[in-house]
């Protein structure tokens, strides 16, 4: 009995229906970036006029790349490393790169969820008092001097909630794809939407709300002539849709064989954009109130990221009538949106471990969650956690997600020349057919935008150290992390897969080589250790 269980590849799980997949995909796409990044990006890049490049970016890069991720995962019915291996042996490293990227994101993402959880409680007591900025940095995070480097002085207010987050995540992931990942999203996503609609509705009743909306939606048509505005639109779409780093590949691999991939992708893409627009309305209505109450312009209170969530909104909560309700709704929304996103992030890694070592769900989950949880707690629950988080987030987004997306498109389109094969697979199962335009957008427009963004960011960071952080921290958690992820991915891809792994199974579709489909079994290479 034991011999069979360790040698025969275990049956792979999947979503029970298209509906469950859509909830899971939306749960991954709708995250912190939708709530605290999109509103300010739109405001800072032309306001209402930004909707034009945003929509263009969605149609010419977001949805095409989403379909690209879907078809790679669905065709191979495997995790990102095995899916790319089954596409072509030379592309396997991209899948391991994806796993490394998700590992890094999970390390710091849990910390932000821990902060949000604490601020849900603080919303009842207004713990931050009259100075939310000082409270956040000094009392709550107890931030140390960046020059001191990494410290291991733990902050109890962060240590306890981050451990709870990891325990809850381990439980959900251990339950499996359908009973854990799927059901969690079916529960949290409707709840998130209801809560956020409530937040938006209440924010619109505040004095000055329409001043905020006017600031957000008044179009600056001259912005359309600036290249950086278009790059910002493409960047926002890329980040918010969870494309290019293995999540949608993994989720699509759990779909049934006869699934409308493009129709499903369109639902996810437009649902994500709809939520971003809703977030923009809610956030700027609240900022309008804040500006009016202080007698200043919206531009002086408009911000994004941590500043918006943990400084601006606490100020609004303290000043607004019924502010406690706003606080509970806002920080609970952050918590739920972030939790569904971190589920998808960790799922990429768990799926890869399952495929590689043919382990059961619980063992794979523990093998993944325990190391990440330990590293996350050691780095993020300390007085230096904020600086490490900021550096990791900036570098893994720019030189992880965007770089991996660019490399995957270039390799698949030009080196492997697999786009025609992927097009045929997606068209055989979809109502919205992909043709030459899809391949042109993927192989032409997307690489240009991603390449321009990467080069521009690289030049900026070389000329001026990111946020003035010490070189040692940037070299370890920034440039060093970027290099280690890529080198490790290539090295791991060169290692043979165990004979008991899922690579030993006959793949659903033959691999592609030089634009032609190979009809020999891909597992022959795996078993020879090539």
Can you characterise this structure?
It is a single chain. The protein is mainly alpha-helical and 530 residues long. The chain has helices at residues 2-7, 18-29, 32-36, 38-44, 51-76, 80-87, 92-125, 132-140, 156-174, 177-203, 209-217, 227-240, 247-252, 261-294, 305-319, 323-357, 361-380, 385-415, 419-427, 436-463, 471-494, 523-528; strands at 512-513, 516-517. A two-stranded antiparallel ribbon has the order 1-2. β1 and β2 form a beta hairpin. α2 (18-29) packs across α10, α5 crosses α6 (80-87) and α7 (92-125) crosses α17. The longest helix is centred in the middle third of the chain and has 35 residues, at 323-357. It is globular, with a radius of gyration of 23 Å.
What features would you highlight for this structure?
mainly alpha, globular, disordered C terminus, two-stranded antiparallel ribbon, 22 helices, disordered N terminus, 530 residues
Short description:
With 530 residues, this protein is mainly alpha-helical.
What Rg is obtained from the alpha carbons, in whole angstroms? Answer: 23 Å
Beta strand count: 2
- Helix percent reads over 70%
How much β-strand is present in the residues? under 5%
Helix-strand pattern, N to C?
Answer: HHHHHHHHHHHHHHHHHHHHHEEH
N/C terminus separation: 31 Å
- Which word captures the global form? globular
Q: Segments where pLDDT lies below 50 for 5+ residues? A: 1-6, 519-530
Structural class of the secondary structure composition? mainly alpha
Largest sheet composition: 2 strands, antiparallel
Read across the widest sheet, the strand sequence of neighbours is 1-2
Mean pLDDT, rounded to whole units?
A: 90
Work out the helix count. Answer: 22
Q: What multimeric state do the chains show?
A: single chain
């Amino acid at each position: 009995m034991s011999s069979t269980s360790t040698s025969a590849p275990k049956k792979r799980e999947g979503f029970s229906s298209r509906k469950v997949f859509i909830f899971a995909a939306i749960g991954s796409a709708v995250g912190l970036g939708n709530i605290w990044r999109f509103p300010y990006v739109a405001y800072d890049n032309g306001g209402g006029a930004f909707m034009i490049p945003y929509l263009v970016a969605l149609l010419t890069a977001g949805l095409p790349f989403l379909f690209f991720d879907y078809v790679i995962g669905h065709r191979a019915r495997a995790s990102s490393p095995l899916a790319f291996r089954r596409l072509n042996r030379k592309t396997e490293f991209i899948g391991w790169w994806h796993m490394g990227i998700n590992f890094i994101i999970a390390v710091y993402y849990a910390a932000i969820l821990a902060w949000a959880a604490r601020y849900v409680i603080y919303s009842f007591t207004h713990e931050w008092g009259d100075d939310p900025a000082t409270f956040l940095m000094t009392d709550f995070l107890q931030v140390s001097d960046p020059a001191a480097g990494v410290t291991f002085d733990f902050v109890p207010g962060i240590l306890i909630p981050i451990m709870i987050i990891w325990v809850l995540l381990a439980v959900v992931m251990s339950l499996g794809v359908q009973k854990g990942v799927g059901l969690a999203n079916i529960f949290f996503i409707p709840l998130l939407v209801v809560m956020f609609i409530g937040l938006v509705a209440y924010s619109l009743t505040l004095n000055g709300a329409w001043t905020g909306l006017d600031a957000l939606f008044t179009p600056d048509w001259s912005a359309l002539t600036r290249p950086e505005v278009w790059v910002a639109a493409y960047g926002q779409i890329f980040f918010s849709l969870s494309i290019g780093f293995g999540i949608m590949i993994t989720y699509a691999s759990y779909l049934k064989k006869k699934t409308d991939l493009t129709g499903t992708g369109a639902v996810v893409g437009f649902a994500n954009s709809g939520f971003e627009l809703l977030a923009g309305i809610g956030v700027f209505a609240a900022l309008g109130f804040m500006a009016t109450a202080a007698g200043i312009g919206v531009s002086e209170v408009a911000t994004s990221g941590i500043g918006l969530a943990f400084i601006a909104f606490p100020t609004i909560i303290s000043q607004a009538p019924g502010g406690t309700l706003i606080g509970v709704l806002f920080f609970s929304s952050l918590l739920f949106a972030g939790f569904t996103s971190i589920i998808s992030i960790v799922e990429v890694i768990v799926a890869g471990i399952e495929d590689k070592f043919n382990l059961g769900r619980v063992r794979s989950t523990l093998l993944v969650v325990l190391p990440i949880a330990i590293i996350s707690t050691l780095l993020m629950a300390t007085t230096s956690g904020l600086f490490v988080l900021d550096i990791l987030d900036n570098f893994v987004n720019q030189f992880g997600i965007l770089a991996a997306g660019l490399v995957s498109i270039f390799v698949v389109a030009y080196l492997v020349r697999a786009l025609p094969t992927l097009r045929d697979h997606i068209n055989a199962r979809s109502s919205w057919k992909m043709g030459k335009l899809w391949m042109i957008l993927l192989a032409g427009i997307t690489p240009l935008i991603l390449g321009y963004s990467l080069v521009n960011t690289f030049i900026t960071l070389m000329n001026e150290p990111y946020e003035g952080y010490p070189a040692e921290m940037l070299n370890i958690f920034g440039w060093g992390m970027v290099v280690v992820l890529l080198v490790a991915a290539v090295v791991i891809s060169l290692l043979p897969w165990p004979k008991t792994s899922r690579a030993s199974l006959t793949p659903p579709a033959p691999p592609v080589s030089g634009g032609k489909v190979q009809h020999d079994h891909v597992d022959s290479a795996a078993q020879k250790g090539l």
